[in-house]
Amino acid sequence: MAKLRVEDLVVAYGAVVAVRDVSFTVEDGEFVSLLGPSGCGKTTTLRCIAGLEGSSGGTIHLGDALMAADGRDVPPDKRGINMVFQSYAVWPHMSVFENVAYGLRIRREPTADVERKVGEALKLVGLDGFADRYGTELSGGQQQRVALARAVVTSPRLLLFDEPLSNLDAGLRDRMRFELVELQRRLGQTSLYVTHDQSEAMLMSDRIILMKDGRIVQSGTPRDLYERPASRFAAEFIGNANIAEATVIRSARDRTALAALPGNIAVEGHFSRSEDIRSSGSVLACIRAESIARVPPGGADLNTFDARVESVGFLGPQVTCTLKLGEVTLRAELPARNPPSVGESIRIRIAPEDVIIISEQ
Q: In whole angstroms, what is the distance from residue 302 CA to residue 354 CA?
């Protein structure tokens, strides 16, 4: 295991720059996710760290060792890095044992050590007793466990994941998220995980690095990115956010602010970051769907408004509603018990701490 340090990484294909000036670290034993939409550069960054893509500039360090520098790259097999792929890459003509043992055999480890390490790896991922089965005899979840066992059996310094759960059905994917994180915690393995699924990144990660157009736009803990988005993109990509244009009426050093939404609706909120505080001008107001609460009629508390129900959709324990507040349309998630009706006027409240003011458009 080792600390990963990426500095000013550039990956270009001729005139097309896929990754531009990307810098971040993954501490020893940390689980970090690269998150972003398709084409943002996250997988290219991961493959460059693995040595499967050449770098065009910048440096990659793993521990004290230099893996890449200004276009000069250490071969993949010399890096001490293993990757779990989206496709699992479980060889169907080999048994589970031989799939997991492959890396150890390449290193010409003694037979006794191979048997011991493969046995330990299979037990770790819950596949002890499956050693003699073949890939065609395994379910998708079992194949994913084989891929994990094969990745950890050689004790790599860094473990990379390229959207490894995206091919699983929803229920199995949820279970595997927790199993994978538990495995990583037990091993204390330095890990970098690529996904476009914000729920997956938030559930699994110590930190999230959010990417767009080949650049890092924000990084931090899942709570940081959820509660303090620095831009419209971050607010919309992380969580279920309503974004409305607003104008600052007043603000204070403690980041609190009063802002006017279209239709002259005044809301109390707070700036996402202290450095973005402004006393006037155009901003964005971010209101999460789950932050909107229905309250009894007639209340006059702070941030309490009348809204018209435009649509209602059933989601089991919740209903998702479209509400009209002044000139703003809001999406709200309300309890399914006694849901509102379309066309009804309801009283809603949005706590000031749940109104996030964002300066960056």
A: 12
Burial of 38 (0-12, 13-18, 19+ CB in 10 A): exposed
Residues 304/270, Cβ–Cβ less than 8 Å? no
Look up residue 78 and give its two tokens: 């010399």
Same domain (yes/no): 160, 250: no
- Whole-prediction pTM value? 0.89
Calpha distance 157→168 (Å, rounded): 27
Q: Per-residue pLDDT tens for 73-130? A: 999 989 999 998 888 788 888 999 999 999 999 999 999 999 999 999 998 888 888 9
Query: What is the rounded distance in angstroms from the CA atom of residue 73 to the CA atom of residue 95?
Result: 34
pLDDT, tens digit, for every residue of 144-166?
Answer: 889 889 998 998 999 999 988 88
Helix (H, G, I), strand (E, B) or coil at 338: coil
62-71: long-range contacts, CB 8 A cutoff, minimum separation 24: 62/2, 62/3, 62/4, 62/5, 62/157, 62/158, 63/2, 63/3, 63/157, 65/2, 68/9
Q: Domain range holding 217?
A: 4-227
Closest alpha carbon to 352 in 256, 248, 238: 256
d(CA 51, CA 160): 12
CATH number for the domain spanning 243: value is 2.40.50.100
Q: Which amino acid is at 110?
A: P
CA distance 321 to 172: 29
Is the Cβ–Cβ distance between 208 and 32 less than 8 Å? yes
pLDDT tens for 11-65 read 999 999 999 999 999 999 999 999 999 999 999 999 999 999 999 999 999 999 9
Give the other-Cβ count within 10 Å of 87's Cβ.
12
DSSP-derived 3-state class of residue 344: coil
Q: What angle do CA 98, 104, 105 make, to 5 degrees?
A: 70
Q: Residue 73 is part of a domain; what is its CATH number? A: 3.40.50.300
pLDDT (average), residues 280-291: 93
